[in-house]
C-alpha cells in the first residue's frame, strides 16, 4: 500500500490534475492520496493559500475581501470547467467562508479555517474528478480520518492516537483523498500545521496506515546533490538516509518540510520524492539505512543569513557556569542557537539572523557585558554555513583534507570548522559573499 502526496504545483490547474489522475490510475497500490492547495501555475502566479491568507487578513482588518474570494473561486472554477465536472465546490467555498467569518471563533482560528479551504476544496475536486473517470474514490475529511492535533493554531502537532485511527483506512476499498495541512483538536477546532504542512499530513498518514512507501510528488525529478542555482545540472541523488536528508535540509535544501520526515522516519517508512511531470523518472528514495558507498559524500548544502556572537574572556575555561549563563541570556530572549564552537578562552554562538532583531541584539550584548564581564564581545554578520553531508564520512580517511583543499583553491578563508558533533556532516563557516565559489569548488572535488 502506498500513500501519495501531491504538492501545490502538482495540483495547480486542470492539466496537472489530469497527470495526477494518471499517476493514481497507473498503480493501484496508491490507495491513499493527500493533496495540497493549488500552487503557482507560472512564476508570477499566487498560491491559493496565499490568496486565502490575504483574504482572511483583509476581513480581520475590516477591509474589502470580496475580490480575493473571487480570485480563489475563479481558480477552482477554471479547474472544474476544464475537467468537465460539477462545480458544487464553488458554493461550498462561498458558504464555508461566510460561516467562518460569522463564527464566534478567535481571529487565529478563523484564519486557520480559511487557510485550510484550499486543501479541503482541492481534495473534493480531485475525488469528484476521479469518480468521473470511473474510479472508486472518496474525499475524506481529516476529522473522519482521525487526524487529531494539538490546539496550536498555525503550528499544530499531531496527537499520538491519530495513528491508530488512520490504520483503519487500510480496510477501505476505495481510493481515499485526504486534504493536507490541517487536522482537528479533540473538541473539534480546525487547526493547521505550519506552512507547507501538507507534507506533514502525508507523512503522518503514511505512518498511520503503515504504508510500504510514501511517495511525495513534486516538480523535480529528484533531489540534487547541490543547489542547481549554483551548479547547473548537478548530479541527482538516487538514495539517501533520513539523517542525511535532515542535515541537508538544515542548510538550504528545501525539498521537504522540516517536520515532515519525523512521522515517516519513526515508523521506518521509505519516502520517495517523485516528479508529477515526469513520473517515469526514478526519483530520490529516503530510507533509514543504506549500504556503504565508495564516495560517502551525498550532498553539499549551503545557507546564508547567520550571525556569530564572539565572546572572549581570559580563564573562561575555569569559570563554572559561563556557558549556562550565556545561553540563559539567549533563552530569556527566545532565541534558539545553531552551534557553539568554543576554545580555551573564547566561545562563539551561531544564530540565524532572522531570530536576532536589532532590539534583541542590543539587549543580548548589554546583558553579556554586564553579567559575564567578558574581555571582548562582538557580533559577526554575513556568515554562511556550508555542510558536506554523507553517512560513512566518519570512517573515511582524507575527506576533510579534500574539502579544505577545495576552499583553498577557491581562495576562500574559513571562519569556522565543525566536525564531530554529527557523524554525517562537516560544517564550514565562511563569509556569505564566498558561498557560490566555495560550493562549486566542493562539488568539483566530490562529484566532478
Ligand atoms: N498550502 C499550504 C501552504 O502553502 C500547505 C502546503 O502546500 O503544503 O503552506
TrEMBL record:
Reactions that this protein is recorded to catalyse: L-aspartate + ATP = 4-phospho-L-aspartate + ADP
InterPro entries hit by this protein: AceGlu_kinase-like_sf, ACT-like_dom_sf, ACT_Aspartokinase, ACT_dom, AKIII_YclM_N, Asp/Glu/Uridylate_kinase, Asp_kin_monofn, Asp_kinase
Keywords: Amino-acid biosynthesis, ATP-binding, Diaminopimelate biosynthesis, Kinase, Lysine biosynthesis, Nucleotide-binding, Transferase
SUPFAM superfamilies in alphabetical order: ACT-like, Carbamate kinase-like
Pathway: Amino-acid biosynthesis; L-methionine biosynthesis via de novo pathway; L-homoserine from L-aspartate: step 1/3; Amino-acid biosynthesis; L-lysine biosynthesis via DAP pathway; (S)-tetrahydrodipicolinate from L-aspartate: step 1/4; Amino-acid biosynthesis; L-threonine biosynthesis; L-threonine from L-aspartate: step 1/5
Domain (ACT): residue spans on this chain: 388-448
Binding site for ATP: 5-8, 218-219, 224
Name of the molecule in the record: Aspartokinase
Organism: Gracilibacillus ureilyticus
Amino acid at each position: 500500500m502506498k500513500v501519495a502526496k501531491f504538492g501545490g504545483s502538482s495540483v495547480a490547474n486542470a492539466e496537472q490534475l489530469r497527470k495526477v489522475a494518471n499517476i493514481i490510475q497507473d498503480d493501484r497500490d496508491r490507495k491513499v492520496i493527500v493533496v495540497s492547495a493549488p500552487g503557482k501555475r507560472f512564476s508570477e502566479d499566487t498560491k491559493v493559500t496565499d490568496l486565502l491568507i490575504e483574504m482572511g487578513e483583509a476581513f480581520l482588518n475590516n477591509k474589502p475581501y470580496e475580490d480575493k474570494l473571487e480570485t480563489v473561486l475563479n481558480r477552482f472554477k477554471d479547474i472544474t470547467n476544464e475537467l468537465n465536472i460539477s462545480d458544487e465546490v464553488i458554493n461550498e467555498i462561498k458558504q464555508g467562508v461566510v460561516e467562518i467569518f460569522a463564527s464566534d471563533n478567535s481571529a487565529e482560528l478563523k484564519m486557520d479555517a480559511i487557510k485550510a479551504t484550499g486543501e479541503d476544496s482541492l481534495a473534493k475536486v480531485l475525488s469528484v474528478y476521479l469518480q468521473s473517470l470511473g474510479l472508486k474514490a472518496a474525499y475524506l475529511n481529516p476529522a473522519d480520518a482521525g487526524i487529531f492535533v494539538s490546539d496550536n493554531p498555525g503550528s499544530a502537532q499531531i496527537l499520538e492516537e491519530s495513528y491508530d485511527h488512520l490504520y483503519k483506512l487500510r480496510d477501505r476499498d476505495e481510493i481515499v483523498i485526504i486534504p493536507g495541512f490541517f487536522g482537528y483538536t479533540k473538541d473539534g477546532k480546525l487547526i493547521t500545521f505550519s506552512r507547507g504542512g501538507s507534507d506533514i499530513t502525508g507523512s503522518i498518514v503514511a505512518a498511520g496506515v503503515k504504508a510500504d512507501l510514501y511517495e511525495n510528488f513534486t516538480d523535480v525529478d529528484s533531489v540534487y546533490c547541490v543547489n542547481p542555482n549554483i551548479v547547473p545540472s548537478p548530479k541527482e541523488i538516487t538514495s539517501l538516509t533520513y539523517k542525511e536528508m535532515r542535515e541537508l535540509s538544515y542548510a538550504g535544501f528545501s525539498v521537504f518540510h522540516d517536520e515532515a520526515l519525523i512521522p515517516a522516519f519513526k515508523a521506518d517508512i521509505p519516502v520517495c520524492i517523485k516528479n508529477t511531470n515526469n513520473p517515469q523518472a526514478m526519483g530520490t528514495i529516503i530510507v533509514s539505512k543504506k549500504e556503504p558507498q565508495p564516495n560517502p559524500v551525498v550532498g553539499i548544502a549551503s545557507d546564508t543569513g547567520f550571525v556569530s556572537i564572539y565572546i572572549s574572556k581570559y580563564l573562561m575555561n575555569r569559570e563554572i557556569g559561563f556557558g549556562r549563563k550565556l545561553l540563559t541570556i539567549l533563552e530569556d530572549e527566545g532565541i534558539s542557537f545553531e552551534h557553539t564552537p568554543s576554545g580555551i578562552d573564547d566561545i562563539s554562538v551561531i544564530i540565524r539572523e532572522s531570530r536576532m532583531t536589532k532590539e534583541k541584539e542590543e539587549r543580548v550584548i548589554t546583558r553579556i557585558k554586564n553579567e559575564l564581564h567578558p574581555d571582548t564581545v562582538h557580533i559577526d554578520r554575513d556568515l554562511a554555513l556550508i555542510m558536506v553531508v554523507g553517512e560513512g564520512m566518519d570512517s573515511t580517511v582524507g575527506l576533510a583534507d579534500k574539502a579544505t583543499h577545495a576552499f583553498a583553491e577557491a581562495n576562500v578563508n574559513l571562519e569556522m570548522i565543525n566536525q564531530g558533533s554529527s557523524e554525517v556532516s562537516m560544517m564550514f563557516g565562511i563569509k556569505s559573499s564566498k558561498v557560490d565559489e566555495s560550493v562549486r569548488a566542493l562539488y568539483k572535488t566530490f562529484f566532478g
